[in-house]
Design a protein that fits this description.
Blueprint lengths: L1 H20 L2 E3 L3 E5 L7 H14 L3 E6 L2 E8 L2 E9 L3 E10 L7 E3 H19 L2
Antiparallel strand pairs: 1-7, 2-6, 3-4, 4-5, 5-6
């Protein structure tokens, strides 16, 4: 009888863990976030964003001056963002994704962490120039 109680408790714990791991949150874009320091040029700002992204596994390419595309492929997941910047600020906007449960407003919670980590990385890189 006691063994059955432990099995039920373990099963409940697994279920809670599974549901928590699949949590979705609202997509939060980054708008006009200030760089740690103003960049001397658009090229330097783009390079800092690209390096910050590369350090975290993002593939960042330049679409045109002031507009980068960031792609983060992880296992079967893919996040794609538009990154707009000038010499003083940057914005990160959701563009597309695969296997992240995006429903037009909400997305897998890991996406929010990936964007927060990218922001931190950009802050570190822009402090260096």
């Amino acid at each position: 009888m006691m063994r059955l109680g432990w099995i039920r408790l373990l099963a409940l714990g697994c279920l809670v863990g599974l549901v928590a791991g699949c949590r979705v949150v609202p997509v939060q874009n980054v708008t006009d976030a200030p760089f740690t320091r103003e960049a001397p040029s658009l090229e330097v700002a783009a390079r800092a964003i690209t390096v910050a992204g590369a350090n975290l596994g993002w593939q960042v390419t330049e679409e045109e001056p002031g507009h980068l595309i960031g792609r983060l492929p992880l296992r079967t997941h893919l996040a794609i963002v538009d990154i707009y910047h000038d010499r003083e600020t940057y914005s990160i906007q959701y563009k597309d994704s695969a296997n992240l449960r995006y429903d037009g407003q909400n997305i897998h919670a890991n996406y929010a962490r990936w964007i927060a980590n990218l922001q931190k990385g950009i802050g570190v890189q822009t402090a260096l120039y």
